[in-house]
Amino acid sequence: HFAYAFDHNGNWTEAEKLQVEVMEKRHQLLGPAHSDTLTSMGNLASIYWRQGECAEAEKLQMELIE
Fold first, then answer.
1. pLDDT per residue as tens digits for the range 42-62
2. Residue 31: domain span
3. For the chain, N or C: smaller number of CB within 10 Å?
4. How many domains does the chain have?
5. Could you write out the DSSP letters of every residue in 50-66?
6. Which superkingdom (predicted)?
């Protein structure tokens, strides 16, 4: 939830850092296809997009589609 708070306040650097940690932990604990892991990937893609890191955002979005 801290990642969301940072994201909501425009502190995308901190939001990205925390969201990467959350996504990696969920991937490790729950697996790559778990809905919480996929949600984390989507959230991180949104953060990347808002930072102008479109290539990273697109990469995650393509993983979500697959």
1. 999 999 998 999 999 999 999
2. 2-65
3. C
4. 1
5. HTT-HHHHHHHHHHHH-
6. Eukaryota
**pTM confidence score:** 0.86
Per residue in 4-42, pLDDT tens?
777 777 777 888 899 999 999 999 999 999 999 999 999
Please report, for the domain that includes residue 23, its CATH number.
1.25.40
- CA dist 58 and 64 (Å) reads 10
For residues 17-44, b (16+ Cβ closer than 10 Å) or e, as one string? ebbeebbeebbeeeeeeeeebbebbbbb
36: DSSP letter: H
Residues 6+ apart with CB under 8 A from 48: 16, 54, 56, 57, 60
Indicate the helix (H) or strand (E) that contains 34.
none
